[in-house]
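Quick review question:
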């Protein structure tokens, strides 16, 4: 039986893996992908030292380093979910920069391959690219990459250490439950994989908020992932942000962790800058208000 599964896996989606040329094009045109880090993030010295391809390129990179992370569409949202796993075809790219000069030093990347490709490390293919994005230096089941990334099984071997409430370069603002601030007595981020939500909202006066930086003013549609146990639906909830309030009624989804994506209204940011989004319950007809996994603000293109 095991063999049969392996054969099917090998036979099917190999054709989907990008060629060297396609991978390089992704790196070169990374500006067209989602950048998930609004500003360069400082790299720890120990990581900066080992995140190198000196041995291959034959030159050393000195000094403090920082990084940016880019993702293709399938990879963009799982990065913000501590338990999020990535579908086949996901691409995540780290650009290593000199902290003083901001110059690109190299790229490291991860490409999600077909099931069974590299089970020791989440079926990721690792690759490295030179600073000019002209050459794939290495690609494959690179042991020295897996050595560290094996330590992050929770996030499907992607570290996600930079995940925060942010606006992606493409415009979406991602507010995951794990990055919320909770106010009150009972409401909390419930960390287990089956939960992974703001929950225990038994006290209607408790509320949640997120602080983030708006880079692109404009109108945004509010997408909200809510779950609600049988018979507990009907709570009135208000989302307040940028001087506006949007109200909606919680839907019974049969189970608190049965999440449903809902579009519940729009918001407007007149200018760039810091913002706070608050979620407050106005009523609680059942045992709890709802479970809330994430909110994504999606720009409305004119
Ligand atoms: C010393 C441990 C270590 C090694 C070795 C390592 N990484 Fe990482 N990697 C990290 C850490 C930590 C981060 C988070 C960003 C940071 O702090 O630089 C990261 C981030 C990344 C990211 C961004 C996605 C993520 O996981 O958050 C990619 C892509 C990546 N590494 C690829 C590689 C590749 C390819 C190699 C091998 C050439 C490699 N890494 C080797 C520790 C390591």
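Suggested answer, residue by residue:
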């Amino acid at each position: 039986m095991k063999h049969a599964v392996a054969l099917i896996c090998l036979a099917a989606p190999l054709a989907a893996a990008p060629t060297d040329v396609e991978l390089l094009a992704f790196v070169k045109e990374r500006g067209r992908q989602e950048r998930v880090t609004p500003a360069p993030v400082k790299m720890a010295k120990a990581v900066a030292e080992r995140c190198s391809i000196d041995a291959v390129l034959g030159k050393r990179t000195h000094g403090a380093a920082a990084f940016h992370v880019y993702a293709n569409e399938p990879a963009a949202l799982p990065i913000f979910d501590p338990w999020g796993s990535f579908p086949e075809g996901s691409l995540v790219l780290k650009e290593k920069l000199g902290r003083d000069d901001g110059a690109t030093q190299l790229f490291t990347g991860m490409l999600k391959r077909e099931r069974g490709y590299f089970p020791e490390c989440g079926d990721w293919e690792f690759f490295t690219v030179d600073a000019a994005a002209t050459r794939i230096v290495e690609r494959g089941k690179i042991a020295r990459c897996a050595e560290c990334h094996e330590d992050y099984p929770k996030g499907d071997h992607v570290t996600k250490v930079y995940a925060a409430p942010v606006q992606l370069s493409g415009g979406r603002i991602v507010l995951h439950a794990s990055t919320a601030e909770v106010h009150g007595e009972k409401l909390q981020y419930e960390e287990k994989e089956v939960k992974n939500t703001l929950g225990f909202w038994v006290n209607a006066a408790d509320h949640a908020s997120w602080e983030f930086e708006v880079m692109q003013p404009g109108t945004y549609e509010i997408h909200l992932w809510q779950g609600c146990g049988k018979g507990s639906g009907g709570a009135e909830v208000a989302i307040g942000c940028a001087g506006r309030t949007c109200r909606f009624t919680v839907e019974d989804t049969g189970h608190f962790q049965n999440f449903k994506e809902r579009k519940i209204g729009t918001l407007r940011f007149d200018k760039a800058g810091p913002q706070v989004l608050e979620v407050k319950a106005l009523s609680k007809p059942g045992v709890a208000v709802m479970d809330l996994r994430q909110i994504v603000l999606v720009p409305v293109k004119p």
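Why it works: Residues 46 and 139 are 23 Å apart (CA to CA). The chain has a mean pLDDT of 93.
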